[in-house]
Each structure stands twice: as structure tokens, then as C-alpha cells.
Design a protein that fits this description.
The complex is a heterodimer. Chain A is mainly alpha-helical. In chain A, 76% of the residues lie in helices and 1% in strands. Chain A has twelve helices and two strands; from the N terminus they run ααββαααααααααα. Chain B is mainly α. Classes of the chains: A mainly alpha, B mainly alpha.
């Protein structure tokens, strides 16, 4: 298409759809203004006192931060959050990537049934399978006297249920786009299976695995329902503590939950900044496969 | 100029498995070989932690605490209007929220489908509410929309749109939950639709334009039919998010009446009544209803055009 034609087409597009364009921009701007308001309300409140209907708090203070830190034992909570999410990332990658390799490379009987098993946990709401899962775990506790529910181990297991399918669903298209001829060629040249894996596949998989891991990390830190149902008091992650402190309003100063919320927000934003170094924003919701445009 | 000889037909492509061949060879011809062992850990995990608990919950739901009638829990759920109405409440919240998310995303994503300045910036900003999650959004909303001193209502008072004795109530009711679902669901829907739109070959639109089609006609006759299957998927995924509204319905809604969604009913049966059998029943009903809505939408999608979109979609 020539430059001239493109320009004509562009002006035609502008002229033809002006009201809807304005409406779209207005909606987007309205959305962002309110979003900023919501985020900054929490940030300002966590540092303020005597707000009572003024535009800004009358007194600025950081003591709610130290209160929240001690009252909720946030050091321990952060440690639990970190251990749980890193463990979930490692296990889900170790289990999910081989499975997606088999799904990407082979056609076999009952493949659709297997795909369905990997798809369902993403489609069914977490509360709906979390309640039977937690019940089964508590039952297991009473029968074997091994603490699964109520412990960090149980929280990790529960969080693996959506994490493994997520890795499989994002890695399968990624592996499909790696040309199988590369592997065949290596085999023709006499490479052993292990050598093919370490020298050919692994280097090609690294970008996809990194992207999938960071997405699982973000999801696990943010996963509320499953952790809430399976955690005991000393295995709660930050988002569950945050929910507890908001829903138990009146017991503690609301600024303490804000301090926790801001801490959570800071953690998520750090993760987001890291994530965006490896994936582009649309991939956060769609898939890991590189889009080679732009 | 010579005519190339016809290529030899691929010989014995689909021959039946040789009965004398080794079993592993015959299996490999059907695609079963050692590679499939790679699937085993994942399948074992999901059978143990997803399929088995669901089956266990199903069994439990037929063993009610207070009765010998195996269907007691189900009868109880569908006759007690406090329980039965949670289905309607959940759908009244999640369907409009999912629809708004999809419908609002289309024009904005359509406008941004090509290359434009600031696209990466806007998409990055939109990822923020997805990562913040519903719990944090709820916390911020409680301050921002506070009827007495929140910035939202103070702005309306200052602009003389509302007076302080008539603030706009957007928390602790139906609207609070819908707004919270839009804040976390709209960016999600938008980014998905944007990626579907960039998968549609722009030369189709350009061709229609050359033939004199108006922008409106090009959208409705070229882009929309190609986008529709993607819209169905997007609707399903945002609906799944909106259907499990537990934290926001609890924190920014009115969890005892207008936003008593089905996940709250299930959670209360478990933690307040400690009735695992009843809780499992409600959880399973919840899963079945959600899967029903999704299959209706996907069935509708099956009737749409499903060919190539011409792009890299």
C-alpha cells in the first residue's frame, strides 16, 4: 500500500469514527482517573491521620506502618509468601514444561481428554474446587496425622492446581513454534537424548520458561481463594492477611490494612517491572509465544 | 520446456500396522512412545489435587449431616430461597460486569489496533489493576468512594453535581462489586481483544476500503465477524473471573443481601456452619452453573466463522 493511499485511508478512518473515538478516549481516561484515585487513596491513608472528610490528612505519620508490621508479624508473612510462590513456580515449571512438550510434539489417543484435564482448573472458579480440596486435605490430616491442610505444604499443593495448567497452556504453543527439525537434525548428527535436551531444547526454552515463571509468580502472590481455604494462621500469605485485616475492620485501625495494602502493591509492582522485562503487556493475559511484529 | 515427471505417490503412507512388528513399534505408530511419560507427573498432580477432590466433594454432597436422604442437600439448596437466590445474585453481578468489560473494550482496542504512539504505555498501565487484584482494589475503593470524605464524592460536591447530604453510594452495595469487577476485568478483556484484533490481517480492511466501504460497514462486515470468536472466548474468561467474586462481594458489597453470591453461601456453609457436605454441594452447583454458561457461549461460538483471520492470530 502506498504512503498516499495510507494517508487517505487514515483520514477517512478518523472522519468516519470520530464520536466513537472520543467516547473511547473518554472512557479510558475516566477509568484511569478513578484507578489512580483508588490506588492513591490507600497510599495516602496509610501515611495519614485525622483525614475526616478533608482533601488530605491533617497529620502525616509512619506509625501505622510499624504498628501493622508488628501486629500482623509481616516479616514472617512475607517469608511465607516468598517460599510459597517460589516453590509453586519451581514445581509447576518442572512438572508443566515436560507435559507441554509431550502435548506439543505428539498426537495420541485420548489427547483431548488430557487437554481437558489441563483446561478445567483454569475454567472452574477457585472457590468451587478449593472447598472440596480443602475438605479432602483436612480429612487427610485427621486420618494420617500428617499436617497437609493448615500448613505451608498444603498451601503450595493447592496453588499448584491452577499453576500447572497455566504453565502447560502457555508453554504448549511456545514449544509448537520451535521447529522439530532442529531436534531431528541433532539426532542425525548423533546427539543423545540428554544432549538434545541440554544443548538444543533448554536454550530454546529459556525465554518461554522465564515468562511462564514470572506469570505464575504474579498469580500465586495474588491468589486469594485457595490460600485462604487451606492456610493455617502461620501459613497465610500477604493477600490473605490483607483480606483478614480489611474484613475485621474495627478491631484495628484501617490505616494498618492500608499499610499492608501498600506493601502488597509495592511487591506486585516490583514483580510487574521484572515481568515486563521478559514479556510484553498483552502476553500477561494471552500467551507466552513471542509475537514477532513491531 | 519440459514437463516435470509426476511425483511418485507417497508409498505405503497409511499402511496397517504390521502384526509381526514389535508392540512398541505398533504403539509408536499411533503416537504412543516414551515421550508420553513426560505427561505423567502433571496428570498425576491434577488427578490427585483436582479430579479426586471434586469426586470426593461429589460423594460428600450425597452424605448430608442432618438427614439420611442422599439428595437432602440439593433439595435444601433449591427450596430455601435464601440459598437458591444466590444463583440469581451471582449472575446479576457477573453477567453485566463481563458484558461491560467486553463491550467497552471493543471500540478502544479497535482504535488502538494498529501502531500508535503511547500504545505500550497504555497497555502497561492497564496491566497494573490486573496485578493488584480484587483484595487491594477493594481496600482502595473503600477509601476513594467513601460517601462522606472519599475523593470521588468530594469532587462531585466541589463541582456541585451532588450535595453532601446526597452522596453517590458506590460501596457496600451492588455497584461496589460491579465496579471492582470492571476495574480488574476490563484491562484483562481489553488486552485479550487487542491481541485478537492484531491477529486480523489489516489488508482485508484496506481492501474493503479501496472498494469504497465506509468505516462503519468495514467494521461490521469485515472486522466484527473475524473478531466474534475471540469475543466469545474473552467473554468466557472475564465471566470466569467475575463469577468467583468472593473477596470483592465480601469487602465492597453487601454480603448479607444484595451481593450474597453463591461463593459466599458456600464459604459460610463451610466456615460458619462447619457443614462440609453442604459446602461441597454448593461448590459443585457453582461449578456446574458456570460451566453451563460457558458452554452456551462456546456453543454459540461454534456457529460463527472459524476460518483463518489472515494474520498471525
Amino acid at each position: 500500500m502506498s504512503e498516499e493511499l495510507a494517508a487517505v485511508e487514515e483520514t477517512a478512518r478518523r472522519r468516519g469514527s470520530r464520536p466513537i473515538v472520543w467516547l473511547a478516549w473518554f472512557l479510558l481516561a475516566f477509568f484511569f482517573v478513578n484507578l489512580a484515585g483508588i490506588v492513591f487513596s490507600a497510599v495516602v491513608d496509610s501515611f495519614g491521620d485525622n483525614w475526616f472528610g478533608n482533601w488530605l490528612p491533617q497529620v502525616w505519620t509512619t506509625h501505622y506502618w510499624s504498628d501493622a508490621w508488628h501486629a500482623y508479624d509481616l516479616g514472617q508473612v512475607l517469608q511465607v509468601t516468598l517460599i510459597v510462590s517460589v516453590a509453586v513456580v519451581i514445581v509447576s515449571v518442572l512438572v508443566g514444561v515436560p507435559a507441554s512438550y509431550a502435548l506439543a510434539r505428539r498426537n495420541f489417543p485420548f489427547k483431548h481428554a488430557i487437554m481437558l484435564v489441563f483446561l478445567l482448573p483454569v475454567m472452574v472458579p477457585p472457590i468451587a474446587y478449593g472447598i472440596p480440596l480443602a475438605t479432602a486435605m483436612y480429612k487427610f490430616n485427621t486420618i494420617t496425622h500428617v499436617q497437609i491442610a493448615n500448613s505451608m505444604f498444603g498451601v503450595i499443593l493447592a496453588n499448584l492446581v491452577p499453576a500447572i495448567p497455566f504453565v502447560v497452556l502457555t508453554m504448549t504453543p511456545f514449544i509448537e513454534q520451535i521447529d522439530p527439525k532442529v531436534e531431528s537434525a541433532a539426532r542425525m548428527c548423533g546427539a543423545s537424548t540428554r544432549k538434545i535436551f541440554t544443548r538444543i531444547l533448554l536454550p530454546l526454552l529459556v525465554p518461554g520458561v522465564l515468562a511462564a515463571s514470572i506469570l505464575v509468580l504474579v498469580r500465586t502472590v495474588g491468589m486469594f481463594e485457595l490460600t485462604y481455604l487451606t492456610a493455617g494462621t502461620d501459613s497465610e500469605t500477604l493477600v490473605v492477611k490483607l483480606f483478614d485485616s480489611i474484613s475485621g475492620a474495627g478491631i484495628r485501625a484501617p490505616q494498618q490494612s492500608d499499610a499492608m495494602a501498600v506493601l502488597y502493591m509495592g511487591m506486585m509492582l516490583v514483580l510487574l517491572v521484572i515481568a515486563l522485562r521478559f514479556v510484553n503487556p498483552t502476553q500477561l493475559v494471552t500467551r507466552v509465544a513471542e509475537e514477532r511484529d513491531a | 520446456m519440459t514437463v516435470a515427471p509426476p511425483a511418485p505417490a507417497p508409498a505405503r503412507r497409511h499402511r496397517p500396522p504390521d502384526p509381526r512388528a514389535h508392540l512398541s513399534h505398533r504403539l509408536a505408530e499411533r503416537g504412543i512412545d516414551r515421550t508420553l511419560w513426560l505427561l505423567l507427573p502433571g496428570v498425576v498432580f491434577l488427578v490427585a489435587l483436582f479430579i479426586y477432590p471434586l469426586a470426593y466433594g461429589l460423594g460428600l454432597s450425597f452424605q448430608p449431616l442432618k438427614s439420611t436422604d442422599p439428595l437432602y442437600n440439593y433439595k435444601q439448596f433449591f427450596t430455601d430461597h435464601l440459598q437458591r437466590d444466590t444463583i440469581g445474585t451471582t449472575l446479576r453481578i457477573s453477567l453485566p460486569a463481563a458484558l461491560v468489560n467486553v463491550i467497552a473494550s471493543v471500540p478502544i482496542a479497535y482504535r488502538m489496533r494498529g501502531r500508535m504512539r503511547g500504545k505500550r504505555f497504555i497497555t502497561t498501565m492497564l496491566v497494573i489493576p490486573i496485578t493488584l487484584g480484587t483484595v487491594l482494589t477493594a481496600d482502595g475503593m473503600l477509601k476513594f468512594f467513601d460517601p462522606a470524605g472519599g475523593w470521588f464524592n468530594k469532587t462531585l460536591f466541589a463541582l456541585h453535581i451532588r450535595t453532601p447530604d446526597q452522596p453517590v453510594l458506590l460501596i457496600n452495595n451492588y455497584w461496589g462489586v460491579v465496579i471492582s469487577l470492571i476495574i480488574s476485568g476490563f484491562p484483562f478483556a481489553f488486552l485479550l481483544i487487542l491481541s485478537y484484533l492484531s491477529g486480523i490481517d489489516p489488508s482485508l480492511d484496506a481492501a474493503a476500503s479501496t472498494l469504497g466501504a465506509s468505516p462503519r460497514r468495514r467494521f461490521w462486515q469485515i472486522t466484527f465477524p473475524l473478531l466474534a470468536p475471540g469475543l466469545a472466548i474473552t467473554f468466557c474468561l472475564t465471566f470466569v473471573l467475575a463469577f468467583s467474586v468472593f473477596p470483592s462481594a465480601y469487602l465492597v458489597g453487601n454480603p448479607t443481601s444484595t451481593t450474597r453470591v453463591i461463593s459466599i453461601a458456600a464459604y459460610e456453609a463451610r466456615s460458619v456452619e462447619t457443614n462440609d457436605s453442604k459446602a461441597s454441594t454448593i461448590a459443585l452447583i457453582m461449578a456446574v452453573i458456570e460451566l453451563l454458561v460457558i458452554s452456551v457461549v462456546l456453543f454459540g461460538r461454534g456457529r460463527l466463522y472459524r476460518g483463518s483471520t489472515g494474520g498471525k492470530g
